[in-house]
UniProtKB/TrEMBL annotation:
Residue span(s) of domain Cation efflux protein cytoplasmic: 207-284
This protein's record includes keyword Kinase: no
Top-level taxon of the source organism: Bacteria
Residues annotated as domain Cation efflux protein transmembrane: 10-202
Transmembrane stretches, start-end: 12-35, 41-59, 75-97, 109-129, 149-171, 177-194
Listed name of the protein: Protein p34
Coarse class of the protein's main subcellular location: membrane
Protein source organism: Devosia pacifica
GO annotation terms (biological process): intracellular zinc ion homeostasis
GO cellular component: plasma membrane
Segments forming a coiled coil: none
Membrane-related topology note: Multi-pass membrane protein
NCBIfam families tied to this protein: CDF
Keywords: Cell membrane, Membrane, Transmembrane, Transmembrane helix, Transport
């Protein structure tokens, strides 16, 4: 968690630098397309702050009011990020409409474009770092932030191409058209972030590959038991909640069944990052003759 927090703080610093560079490009040119690009970077700064807050909340241990921990704070943060992206899209559309009504010539275009390219290169590098580190540490907030920055990269590239077209053709209304296209792309990105992270709030099960690994681990480490069934999983940030029923011989002592449970839990925690396990022990009369067969 400490590593993720450091990455999030660095992301805030990078976002502020990129915002300053992009705004400088807008001031040099007066281009509404470059202004729309800078406006999206304002959202990057707000997003970075939101991610920092979410990671700090998610790191809190379980307490009386939150016995399952605070892991879902990152999903909430990612959804907030998605909403912010959508808001930015509508703000850009408004600026595009104004520019369409009152088109302006682009000034000092090549200098402004050079400045914007520098900001884009910085975003390319940092978005890659965020996505990789977010997936490595299972941080939904970092991944969402990284994907937003990657959209920013694509957006800026489109803006640069469009501004060049305006300069070469002299058709100033293209500037507003480019800004409108940017807004639509940003809107789609925001919806994608919201949709992806809503599943985490809905207690979505572990992916099929991870679920298969969990079933295999239980079957291989439950020697002495009869079967395991009613397996359920769900993800919440870095935590993977796993619960199932373990059927043991009716004559088995509590101590023996507890030893089997310990064996399963130890192996699950060793191979499934952030595993939180609940096992309900049942006598053989409760066997369903289906589910996980003990090897």
């Amino acid at each position: 968690m400490e590593h993720s927090l450091k990455i999030a703080c660095a992301s805030l610093a990078v976002s502020i630098v990129v915002l300053a560079i992009k705004y400088a490009a807008f001031l040099l040119t007066g281009s509404v397309a470059l202004y729309s690009d800078a406006l999206e970077s304002v959202i990057n700064v707000v997003t970075a702050v939101t991610v920092i807050v979410a990671i700090r909340i998610a790191a809190r241990p379980a307490d009386a009011e939150h016995p399952y921990g605070h892991h879902k704070a990152e999903y909430l943060s990612a959804i907030v990020v998605g909403v912010m992206i959508v808001v930015a899209a509508f703000a850009i559309l408004r600026e595009a409409y104004e520019a369409f009504l009152h088109p302006k010539l682009i000034e000092d275009a090549w200098t402004g474009l050079g400045v914007s390219v520098a900001a884009t290169l910085l975003n390319v590098i940092w978005s890659t770092v965020l996505i990789r580190q977010g997936r490595r540490h299972r941080s939904a907030s970092l991944v969402a932030d990284g994907k937003h920055l990657m959209v920013d990269v694509v957006t800026t590239f489109a803006v640069l191409v469009g501004v060049v077209a305006v300069v070469l053709t002299g058709i100033t209304v293209l500037d507003a058209g480019i800004a409108a296209l940017v807004a639509l792309n940003v809107l789609w990105s925001g919806w994608g972030v919201i949709r992806e992270n809503a599943s985490g709030l809905m207690d979505e099960a572990a992916p099929a590959e991870e679920l298969a690994a969990i079933r295999s681990i239980i079957g291989q480490n439950a020697a002495g038991a009869i079967e395991a069934h009613a397996l359920r999983t769900r993800h919440a940030g870095r935590a993977t909640f796993i619960d199932f029923h373990l059927v043991v011989p009716s004559a088995m002592s509590v101590g023996e069944s507890h030893d089997i449970c310990d064996s399963i839990e130890t192996e699950l925690k060793a191979r499934i990052a952030g595993a939180i396990i609940t096992i309900h022990v049942e006598p053989e009369e409760e066997a369903k003759h289906k589910g996980i067969i003990v090897e």
